[in-house]
Amino acid sequence: MNKTIFIKKLEKALEKLPPEEQQDVLEDFREHFHAGLQEGKEEEEIANALGSPNQIAKEIIATYYLDRVEEKSNVGNIFRAVWAVIGLGFFNLIIVLGPFIALLGCIVGGWAVGIAFVCSPILLLLDFMFYPDSFRLFDLFASIALTGLGIFITIAMFYVTRFIAKVFVRYLSYNAKLVKGGLKHA
Most buried residue, 47, 71, 129, 162, by most Cβ within 10 Å? Predict the structure, then answer.
């Protein structure tokens, strides 16, 4: 594969990146070819040494999204980083997606419990409106206790969610480094 074909394949594979990022990456690879040609290497030899344009693009996209999630950790960035890291290899489908779904389930469950507990007085009020004879003082106190507990759970879930997001982003970075060529030991 020559330089033109390599760059075109890489450009097509990098379509998910913003245009300015694409141009930076493509310019870097043009410089690789230029430096290799000055050293007396053939274009095919340089392209083979660089590797597959599709795999290179997957690694660059994963790195880009991991950097974005480290800059600004929000739900959208985390999902894009997860999908980009999963795209690095089939192995990651199990190693990344499994823990991601489990952690997401725990987070959603925790938030649902906290919000449901906080909303328990509203449910008690609705119950009283539709079935006035069923009101018991115990239900009122239980509802107040659940509201207090729900507030604590919701506050805790705020911090737990932030902590889990940070740890999972570190796990994604570790996994991406491992897949891209192993970890370098200092």
Answer: 47
Number of domains in the chain: 1
Query: Residue 155's domain spans which residues?
Result: 86-186
Place of tokens 């590797």: 51
Q: Which residue has the tokens 């199990």?
A: 94
DSSP state at residue 135 = -
pLDDT for 30-83, tens place per residue? 898 888 888 888 888 888 888 888 888 888 888 888 888 888 888 888 888 888
Q: What DSSP string describes 11-70?
A: HHHTTTS-HHHHHHHHHHHHHHHHHHHHTT--HHHHHHHH--HHHHHHHHHHHHHHHHHH
Q: Is residue 10 situated within a structural domain?
A: no
Q: Contact at 8 Å (CB) between 176 and 66?
A: yes
